[in-house]
Amino acid sequence: MKRCILTKKWISTSLDEGIFTIFGSGTFLFLEVTCFVLTITNNLMLLMDDESMIELFGLIELALSVVGIVLFLNLNYPLVRQLNRFRYETTAAVESYYNKIQLDVFQSFLYQKNVWVFLYHIFCVSAGLYGYTAIITLDVFSAINLFDTMQFIIKSVVMHIGQLLSTLALAGLIMFSFSYLVTMYFVDEISGDTCSSFSSCFFYIMDQAFSNGQGIAGLTSATVESLGNKYYLLFLLNITFFLLINTVLLNIILAILVDTFSALRQKSDQFGNK
After folding, report:
1. pTM of the model
2. Residue 167 and residue 154: Cα distance in Å, rounded?
3. Distance between CA atoms of 72 and 243, rounded to whole angstroms?
4. Domain limits of the chain?
5. Running along the chain, 274 residues long, what does each successive block of 10 average in pLDDT?
């Protein structure tokens, strides 16, 4: 009887150790890569319009995502929860029910990278199988979790989001002012309905500025003969708009992103060398 119990314990311990060796490293790389391959396959099936294969691969991806979450709950969650509670007990003076929920549900489970990636797979696949097949294409963004460079790109935007929004707000104010000037003084020189009103002129100038860099120059092809002295005012507006928006502000945004990306990459390389 004792030998039977010891054998069962040995089998259970060996099985747990085997599972932890494969999936318990904290990255769940095998399941993540498999789900991503299934995601790419599903998107290829969308191009081929093969609904039966989309459903098959979607169900497999859904099952693997559920398995990943279950493995996390059994292998990683107890340790993560214990560590978070230990950190909380050493830094917080009062323990409340809200703090327990915050620690046990959000920080120890939902905020974990492995969990939300699998939850993202489940959401995209479930929505696709339910009928919103276009959402399956969004599932390819799970690749961000697999590649550090993609994560650096996202972080380079998020880390200085305040500076980026301020720069974009300044660009919007400049385009607002220039749109008003064009609507007031040059609306007759613009063909079509692109500037039939102030709002349409504003959004059209914004589209031209960010899509092809034309701005006000893309609104009209007026010449000196057709405008007379007003042509020089329009020329001044074109040059000023180009310098402020296309040369200065857009390059400021690019510089913020590039500098942040370089700093993150350098920090990662230094950490890796250590």
Report:
1. 0.65
2. 18
3. 53
4. 2-146, 161-273
5. 47 48 57 89 86 88 90 83 73 60 77 85 90 86 84 81 87 84 74 69 74 65 67 81 84 86 75 60
